[in-house]
Amino acid sequence: MATLSPHTYENEIYADGLKGIKPTISFNPLEWESQAKEVLSADSFGYVWGSAGLRETDDNNRAAFRKWAIVPSRLVKSDFPSLKTTLFGEEYDYPIAIAPVGVQQIFHPDGEIAAATAACKQNVTYILSSASSTSIENVASANDNGSRWFQLYWPSNEHDDITVSLLQRAKASGYKVLVVTLDTYILGWRPSDLCNAFNPFLRPDNIGVDLGFTDPVFRRQFRERHQKDVEEDLGTAAAEWARTIFPGTSHSWEDLQLLRKHWDGPIVLKGIQTAQDAQRAVDAGMQGIVVSNHGGRQQDGGIGSLDMLPEIAEATKDKLEIIFDSGIRSGADIAKALALGAKMVLIGRPYVYGLAIGGEDGVSHVLRSLLGDLELTLHLAGIPSASPETLNKNVLRRLTQ
Ligand SMILES: Cc1cc2nc3c(=O)[nH]c(=O)nc-3n(C[C@H](O)[C@H](O)[C@H](O)COP(=O)(O)O)c2cc1C
Ligand SMILES: O=C(O)C(=O)c1ccccc1
Questions:
Q1: Rounded to an integer, what is the distance from CA 387 to the centroid of its chain?
Q2: Which residues bind FMN (predicted)?
Q3: Looking at residue 385, what DSSP letter applies?
């Protein structure tokens, strides 16, 4: 069955309207946050909404989009724009993917299963977090024949055998691209979580440690250390898994060779914010980067992620694939990031809010809304496709310096 153009979501909604049926989830992306707040516990809402320090990096992420504006062209006779994009030699239907987000069961009981199912149904890539509350294998089953990538929180060198085990499991379960997050070897200073005394990893129900608890190498080593199984001392095991994937200190550029050796598909470094680091990624044999500051959740007082995209793209876009995140909230935001050099963007908090509000349907709603908005934004600006030939810096003007 041919996939319907995303903007046709509108037709469904207006047809329902004629029957007196009103949508339950907002179409205003900024209201997804307030709707999620109504249904989540204070702890869970504070965690997803939270950012580092005074939220300056987060604010700068949003402000960066407002420094650019789309300039439309007229009498461009074209069909609805193609949203296809090509990365690592593969064609993707849409230039968006689900950002890796940990502990999704604290937002909805169906957690990762709901989000990975929605991603498959909407033809959007799902990136599984290392801090998932559902195992690599179970998420793969839910994601079925969908496109899925695996995000690594990278254990320190003393745990290389666990790293290799995670990579092997991901590979065996059909995850095609490895995304290595470099900005979160320890959690940032997050006042919302501190005020709630809430650490998503140190919970009485131990949600969020499933990848460790299902890992044969972690389980064997736990037994050797404690002469008991993970199930016999869940609290200790959860704390040890948290220390394993958030070791407190960073790796070095040389360490990437271990990942290169054990992963034969594309590797993408997530958290890059300078052209110099992007070039280092090229030199280290990496295939892509995510220009990201983790949604401002790690380091406060930082520059907006979009502010750094043009110079990074200028320096390296012909040498590796550029993906972007941090602050994407609308179709116009996606268009701007693509125009400034990204081939794909990651959707973060918006889909988590959708998950909280409506489970699988809520995630589908957010993805369909963003894609419908993107499609009409390009179409009405006279931009015939999302590819760099037609969606590039020429369609933007910088408003302020
Ligand atoms: C609740 C939450 C959990 C996250 N967990 C992870 C994670 O496990 N791994 C990771 O690489 N990034 C994680 N991120 C960061 C996202 O992948 C992404 O970079 C960020 O959400 C983008 O910013 P935005 O939400 O403002 O768009 C998390 C973000 C949120 C909001
Ligand atoms: O909150 C985050 O940003 C994050 O990356 C994370 C995910 C799971 C557990 C702890 C932190």
A1: 21
A2: 100-102, 129, 151, 181, 270, 292, 325-329, 348-349
A3: B
- Among residues 116, 350, 137, 156, which one has the least CA distance to residue 250? 156
Instruction: Kindly provide the ipTM of the predicted complex, given to two decimals.
Output: 0.99
Distances in Å between the Cα of 373 and the Cα atoms of 81, 274, 334, 369 are 12, 30, 10, 6
| DSSP helix/strand/coil, 3 | coil
Other C-beta atoms closer than 10 Å to the C-beta of 196 total 17
**Beta strands of 35-177 (E only): which ranges?**
68-70, 85-87, 90-92, 96-98, 125-128, 148-152
Per-residue pLDDT tens over the stretch 274-306: 999 999 999 999 999 999 999 999 999 999 999
- Ranges in the chain, pLDDT < 70: 1-2, 401
- Quick check: 182 and 249 in contact, CB under 8 A? no
Sign of CA dihedral 183, 65, 30, 370: negative
| Ligand 1 contact, 325 CB (< 6 A) | yes
The reported pLDDT for the residue numbered 201 is 81
**Ligand 1 centroid to residue 22 C-alpha, Å:** 31
The half-sphere exposure of 42 on its side-chain side, counting CA atoms within 13 A, is 7
Question: Catalytic residue numbers?
Answer: 294
Distance CA 265, CA 233 (A): 36
End-to-end CA separation in angstroms for the chain: 47
Nearest to 85 by CA among 351, 292, 322: 322
Question: Radius of gyration over alpha carbons of the chain, in Å?
Answer: 21
Q: Which residue has the tokens 């095609």?
A: 176
Separation in Å, CA 106 to CA 201, 242, 286: 11, 17, 33
DSSP annotation of 21 reads P
Does the reported pTM lie above 0.90?
Answer: yes
- Other beta carbons within 10 angstroms of residue 104's beta carbon come to 30
Give the separation between CA 300 and CA 53, rounded to whole angstroms: 5
Q: Which residue from 43, 103, 290, 325 has its CB within 8 A of the most atoms of ligand 2, so it is best to mutate?
A: 103
Q: Is the CB of 99 under 6 A from ligand 1?
A: yes
Residues near ligand 2 (Cβ within 6 A): 102-103, 131, 184, 187, 200-201, 208, 294, 297
